[in-house]
Write a structure and sequence with these properties.
The complex is a heterodimer of chains A (about 375) and B (about 250). Chain A is an alpha/beta fold and about 375 residues long. Chain A is built from 16 helices and 16 strands. With about 250 residues, chain B is mostly helical. In chain B, helix 1 crosses helix 4, helix 1 runs parallel beside helix 8 and helix 3 crosses helix 4. The chains are: A alpha/beta (about 375), B mainly alpha (about 250). Bound molecules: adenosine-5'-triphosphate (ATP) and magnesium ion (MG).
């Protein structure tokens, strides 16, 4: 459906963005171009709809050399989701979505019907969203509209340049699933650009891994993962997994065992002694079934014992994080306020571990030394 | 012997009530001179501004020249133009145009230049022709900046047009200069007041135009229109359903 034959692109300033690219995207195939920033993904995509002209080689869409087609006509027949989304702020959602049908001269009744159909498809209530402006939408909604705009005239080929780029991992995941689900019925030929390996592996029929304008490896997600062709591919698969950590990521990788775990029935004087011996400020109280009962703070425990109180009276339960609800940012903020272990539980109140400033620091060191390696490379 | 001393306001009211047809006629002239000047400015500057966005080097030269006209004192410019166009309204209009060029040209140019390239790229990627990109994306996005430039130009023109009579043109300036010559403040006011009101009205009018195009208001209008059409459609639907029921 989309064929690259020895396609190169040299920009006027001499930058060789794409070098001798050969690629054949079959009808109904979902191909994901992936690679580090600047490797030529966007350029490859833009050459398909002639936003950039290839400087050598040949590109065919649906069997026809794109040089023989008027670029305006060519573009109206190819869906395009631009990297920056770029919904026009002065047009309503409906007008944004309906632009290509309007350019193609559909009558307004048909356009309205198509817009509503697409909004419903994306899970957006037409009555509510039709006349909104882009700046009245959330990030995820904007991205959805960007995708709908590309689908409006039902083009057989759709180009998507990091359509879910600037989203939090959860919304991103939802939109990826939606797109995958949607395309089961639409069977579009899709060329999709990303630099997120998880996204590529999740969506692609075929992953095309690029570096410096060339293809390093091409294959199904399984092939890429099971038989990485070289060190670059291997490190890219690995590195990219790490790169997906953000302040919005789950806390899971920060969890570690508490320094002191005590049972609810233990003698508070013993507990105090152990804490003082080991120089610990906190301890976690967990019952036999693994449920979190609360935590102990050294000063509170001391005060309670002075007043001849029980362990139960020394337990505090107001500072904790729930794994399913909290992200790294929350943990970092709590630690900045008070630098003591934070217990993490799941929704069932099962104790999972603690997050400390130490675990955050280790993560930071790992990331710093990794980016150092990248610089040296 | 002397007529009893009259207050300024009495003088003003008397003058106006005796001379209102003349004041009205001069106001009309004033509007015409300013209107023609603004129209010519728009006809020149908006296409020129659009053209200049494609010729960066030329743009800095042209805008530099427009800037120079701006700095010449208005009376001096009018006086100088007597040598070119002779005396009369043509001369005045021409000077006013030279004056108004800068804000309109500059705002058209910068307004268009400030449209994010990404918006244009999206438009091109969807298959708009260059003309469609200009009309559907660039101009609408630059519109409020352009209208702001027109507002400034219009207010200046209406104000400066009072000087037109100094070089043999018409307009409310005649009253002002006559009043100054005769040391009759009420006559000066009879000229200055309508000129001020005109400027304020024009400014407000253009501001309303600016607001009218504001995307949020437009979206609301669209929504309302759509809702109205919807209800019309529903009303039409009702008899249709009844007919079906009858047939059954
Ligand atoms: N108009 C241009 N003129 C000169 N060089 C360019 C131009 N556009 C892109 N390049 C260069 O071509 C190379 C490939 O750019 P491209 O935008 O295709 O990268 P990308 O893989 O999409 O990166 P990213 O993931 O950051 O979007 C880069 O080195 C870039 O600097
Ligand atoms: Mg890119």
């Amino acid at each position: 459906m989309v064929t690259f034959e020895a396609v190169s692109k040299v920009f006027t300033d001499g930058t060789e963005a794409v070098k001798e690219l050969d690629l054949d995207v079959g009808e109904g195939e979902f191909v994901v171009l992936i690679g580090p920033s600047g490797c030529g993904k966007t350029t490859s995509l833009k050459m398909i709809n002639r936003l950039e002209e290839n400087t050598s080689g040949r590109i065919r869409v649906n069997g026809r050399d794109i040089r023989s087609v008027d670029p305006v006509q060519l573009r109206r027949g190819i869906g395009y989701v631009i990297q920056e989304i770029a919904l026009w702020p002065h047009m309503s959602v409906a007008e944004n979505i309906g632009i290509v049908p309007r350019l193609l001269g559909w009558d307004s009744g048909r356009i309205d019907a198509r817009v509503d159909e697409l909004l419903v498809l994306a899970g957006l209530d037409p009555a509510k969203f039709r006349h909104r402006l882009p700046d009245q939408l959330s990030g995820g909604q904007k991205q959805r509209i960007g995708v709908l705009r590309a689908l409006a005239a039902d083009p057989p080929v759709v180009l998507m340049d990091e359509p879910f780029g600037a989203l939090d991992p959860i919304t991103r995941d939802v939109l990826q699933s939606e797109l995958k689900e949607l395309n089961k019925s639409l069977r579009k030929t899709i060329v999709f650009v990303t630099h997120d390996m998880d996204e590529a592996l999740k969506l692609a029929d075929r992953v095309v891994l690029m570096r410096q304008g060339k293809i390093e490896q091409m294959g199904s997600p399984e092939e890429i993962q099971n038989a990485p062709a070289n060190d670059f591919v291997r490190s890219f698969i690995g590195e990219d997994r790490l790169a997906s950590i953000s302040p919005e990521s789950s806390l899971e990788i920060l969890l570690h065992d508490p320094f002191l775990r005590v049972a609810p029935g233990e003698d508070p004087r013993d507990v105090l002694e152990r804490m003082e011996d080991d120089g610990l400020e906190t301890a976690q109280v967990v019952d036999a079934r693994g449920n979190w009962m609360g935590m102990l703070y050294l000063p509170v425990l001391k005060r309670t014992l002075r007043n001849r109180g029980t362990l139960r009276e020394a337990v505090r339960r107001n500072r904790k994080l729930v794994l399913e609800e909290a992200v790294m940012r929350d943990a970092a903020e709590m630690l900045a306020d008070m630098d003591l272990s934070i217990p993490v539980v799941n929704r069932e109140n099962e104790f999972l571990g603690v997050v400390t400033s130490g675990s955050l620091a280790r993560l930071a060191i790992g990331r710093l030394s990794r980016s150092r390696k990248e610089e040296n490379a | 012997m002397f007529p009893p001393e009259r207050t300024f306001w009495e003088l003003f009211v008397t003058y106006v009530s005796e001379n209102w047809p003349r004041i009205l006629a001069l106001t009309g002239q004033h509007v015409m001179i300013s209107g023609i000047a603004v129209c010519i400015t728009l006809l020149i500057c908006i296409p020129l501004g659009i053209y200049l966005t494609k010729r960066e080097k030329l743009a800095s030269v042209v805008i530099g020249v427009a800037n120079v006209f701006q700095t010449i004192p208005s009376l001096a410019l009018l006086g100088f133009l007597i040598f070119v166009f002779g005396i009369g309204n043509d001369n005045a209009i021409c000077a006013l145009v030279l004056y108004a060029v800068l804000p309109v040209l500059q705002n058209t140019y910068t307004g268009l230049r400030n449209v994010s390239p990404v918006m244009i790229q999206a438009a091109r990627g969807m298959g708009m022709t260059e003309t469609q990109i200009l009309l559907k994306v660039q101009l609408p996005l630059a519109r409020s900046v352009i209208i702001a430039g027109i507002r400034v130009a219009t207010v200046w023109v209406i104000g400066t047009a009072t000087l037109a009579s100094a070089i043999g043109g018409g307009g409310l300036g005649k009253l002002i200069f006559a009043g100054l010559g005769a040391l009759r403040q009420e006559v000066v006011l009879a000229g200055a007041l309508p000129a001020t009101v005109l400027a304020l009205l024009a400014d407000q009018g253009l501001k309303m135009l600016q607001n009218h195009f504001e995307p949020r208001r437009r979206a609301l209008r669209l929504a309302r229109k759509y809702a109205a059409e919807e209800s019309v459609r529903e009303e039409k639907d009702v008899p249709g359903e009844e007919m079906v029921r009858h047939e059954m």
